[in-house]
């Protein structure tokens, strides 16, 4: 394990050290009960004062990630972060080969197998245009088999970029094909932005909570992630402004429409404020748009990119969720100077998307079939949202609350304070039901009592069964908790 | 532009600064004639002494990358690195948005359009099994259209990994499917290894010269690249041993069979020595194998990975060149502890290859068709190699030499000392013929008088015409040079 400290950063060293350990503990790299290095040893290795190490350990203890046992040492807390059993024999190797992996919570929680999968915000295969894509492939290989023998352009196939540009113009984002870079899904989009613009000690601002895999990526560049709370209008601009008094962020990462995981929408007013703030603070905005087309009631506000007159906004869209995971395509839109750097990073990363997949999805945009598909997906997912709310209203114990999703794939559920959804998840695993524990969504100041439930990936029967069962388990869990604590029930 | 300095590194600060500038100048980011910051300003920004900056500038001047004009300042040399015209208006933005892109020479030279393309070591589309792949796709979408709606496993499709494991066993690499990670081509393979194991100040050892895109990737992690000369037996083990007296490298990057760009083969004896050396120096080996199956005379020595009893070797293979660029698939093989980290890095990078492409190439391995295809490719490229040698023998001016390729796609040609193949390339562009200037292949201590010619991507007619024309242009270039210098001809 390697800890990179940036002594020029505005982030205190103690906090950098805290973050490095927190990441790895939460990613399951240090099994519960494993011993941390001594204060003296760590201070020597990192060339900091022992006081700094003690401050870092204080922060870890406050977050209940470590516990200090007098006379014995300091240990990772014995709780179910769900350590990976197969890693325990790897411990020796872990410490011998220093690596630059900070945080891979996404991978950790992705591995949870389940019969009823509420943890992945993906669309049930039945809802995807598989037959249309299959048809597209058939015609493609008959008509143009030679594409299999060609490398695509690094920036992405020009025909696809033309079709995407047309699509974006329909979304009020006025671009041409040269403003677009095709990526391997939206994951790679975030990764390329991070590679280009973030390094050790740089600061990224996100919503609180936010998308776990994005936290992973930013941390893997050694950046510090500072999160800003939200309310019903999305990211709090007053809090963001106050943050700018102390810090100089490089990048603001936002998921403004049906925010992942909460579902909040950043209001039109706040989008304008965000643009002005970021520009005056010389800060880039990365606007991540996984599913703005999947609105259930009214269509959402204009994309931030549609109002980007300063040229500081990078727009990111993934097509895997709404079209075809098998093809794994996303794209970035940015002004020329920024996009050229992203293309350079893409070149280093993999020299361009495979051409085959780009040609496969091309007809769906060229024929405007995409609009019909999105309309159908909206209708189907709206029904699932309605059913989810109905079931929760019917079966959830009191003390449990949620945010009504106005679009997207997820619902953010809050349990009473003092609960821990990771513990709940281990009970749920016995029923083979999974969800995403909310703690994975916090870069810091972790809150333990939330969970994200994706209703997009299950059939109606599974939804019905799954939510009933989950509510039962929650009820039992809350009961057991209050008995354990000898307290009057929390509700 | 951001320069990251590692003050704990064994590499002197002046050299780190030199490298940062050299990378960007050679990548065309600083147009010819653009002015460098003053010594005082740079010293202040980087928090180093002015003497250190002057040392860095001395190194740049010695490499003819900058020139100091008394009373005016220090400028990028006025020579044809071939600055990108579209970048010049971007200069202001370039300096305003700091980025972490060190070196993208691969991208730069990839952009050279040409009627006769000797610069890309790829296979002419006619030589690829396009029809077989087209057939495979047809059957795939009829039989299993649902794969379009599925995310593949992050590590790669299990069926493909099983087929690849069988293939590797045939190559004497005893592995099982869990030892394999499927990547987006070999480019991503190098990138993932770099992300995992390299950071600012770490040292990578390569052959000298080596594959340009690999240098780009290592530099983009802030690593220092130290290269070791070769002879007819490949990387010089005596030089490598001596290097270990001074430095503690993290990784040795080698292309042992038909080395890119020289074509040299690392002998069996030296492969064993390399394994022992690396193990005792606690150093990883990244073995890059683009085309070992494409041998013209005798089959090459065993893969280094086949002899890896310590578990320190990471084996990398790309399938794009020999099978299908359109699918862009490669894979890494490593022992468990190392592979788990690579999988975590892959998760952050893009969460796994698209499933479609993996299923497309699967039958080619399952049916053992791959062996027949490689045999045909061997025969065809051997003919092109023979033709290339014949043409060079017939038309090349004296003073021009080359290394006889025993396999692979390239030939490494050396011009007389004092020539510069970048200048030659600009003359060749007028004939719409391209090649890769050798200077792109040197991390440092650049040699200017070589070029790499790929004979794999042209028809026989193009090969014949192209080499004749190139030899003519070389002749004219050498003549013009010696006239310019008022010297007796160099030959």
UniProtKB/TrEMBL annotation, chains A, B:
Superkingdom of source: Bacteria
Per UniProt, which keywords does this protein have? Aminotransferase, DNA-binding, Pyridoxal phosphate, Transcription, Transcription regulation, Transferase
Needed cofactors, names only, are: pyridoxal 5'-phosphate
The entry lists its GO molecular-function terms as: DNA binding; DNA-binding transcription factor activity; pyridoxal phosphate binding; transaminase activity
What is the protein's quaternary organization?
Homodimer.
Provide the family line: In the C-terminal section; belongs to the class-I pyridoxal-phosphate-dependent aminotransferase family.
Full protein name: DNA-binding transcriptional regulator, MocR family, contains an aminotransferase domain
Provide the species name: Thermoflavimicrobium dichotomicum
């Amino acid at each position: 394990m390697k800890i990179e400290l940036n002594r020029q950063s505005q982030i205190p060293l103690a906090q950098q050290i805290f973050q490095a350990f927190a990441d790895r503990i939460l990613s399951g790299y240090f099994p519960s009960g494993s011993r941390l290095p001594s204060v003296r040893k760590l201070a020597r290795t990192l060339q900091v004062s022992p006081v700094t190490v003690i401050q870092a350990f204080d922060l870890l203890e406050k977050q209940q990630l470590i516990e200090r046992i007098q006379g014995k040492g300091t240990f990772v807390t014995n709780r179910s972060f769900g350590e990976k059993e197969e890693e325990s024999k790897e411990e020796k190797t872990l410490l011998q080969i220093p690596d630059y992996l900070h945080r891979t919570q996404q991978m950790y929680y992705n591995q949870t197998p389940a019969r009823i999968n509420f943890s992945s915000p993906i669309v049930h295969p039945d809802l995807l245009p598989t037959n249309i894509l299959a048809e597209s492939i058939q015609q493609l290989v008959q008509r143009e088999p030679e594409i299999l023998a060609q490398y695509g352009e690094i920036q992405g196939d020009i025909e696809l970029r033309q079709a995407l540009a047309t699509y974006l113009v329909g979304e009020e984002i006025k671009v041409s094909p040269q403003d677009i870079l095709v990526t391997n899904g939206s994951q790679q989009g975030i990764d390329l932005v991070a590679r280009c613009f973030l390094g050790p000690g740089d600061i990224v601002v996100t919503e609180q909570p936010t998308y776990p895999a994005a936290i992973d990526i930013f941390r893997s560049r050694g950046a510090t992630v500072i999160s800003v709370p939200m309310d019903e209008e999305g990211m709090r601009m007053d809090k963001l402004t106050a943050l700018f008094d102390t810090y100089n962020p490089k990048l603001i990462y936002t998921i403004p429409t049906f925010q992942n995981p909460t579902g909040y929408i950043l209001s039109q007013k706040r989008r304008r404020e965000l643009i002005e703030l970021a520009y005056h603070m010389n800060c880039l905005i990365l606007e991540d748009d996984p599913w703005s087309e999947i609105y259930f009631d009214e269509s959402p506000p204009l994309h931030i990119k549609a109002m980007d007159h300063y040229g500081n906004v990078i727009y990111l869209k993934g097509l895997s969720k709404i079209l075809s995971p098998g093809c794994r395509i996303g794209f970035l839109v940015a002004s020329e100077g920024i996009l050229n750097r992203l293309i350079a990073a893409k070149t280093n990363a993999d020299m361009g998307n495979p051409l085959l997949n780009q040609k496969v999805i091309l007809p769906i945009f060229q024929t405007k079939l995409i609009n019909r598909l999105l309309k159908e997906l909206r209708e189907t997912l709206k029904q699932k949202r309605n059913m989810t709310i109905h079931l929760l209203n019917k079966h959830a114990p009191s003390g449990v609350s949620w945010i009504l999703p106005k679009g997207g794939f997820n619902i953010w559920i809050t349990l009473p304070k003092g609960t821990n959804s990771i513990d709940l998840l281990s009970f749920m695993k016995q029923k083979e039901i999974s969800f995403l524990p909310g703690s994975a969504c916090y870069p810091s100041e972790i809150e333990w009592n939330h969970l994200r439930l994706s209703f997009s990936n299950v059939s109606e029967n599974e939804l019905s069964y799954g939510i009933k069962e989950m509510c039962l388990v929650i009820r039992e869990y809350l009961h057991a908790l209050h008995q354990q604590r000898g307290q009057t029930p929390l509700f």
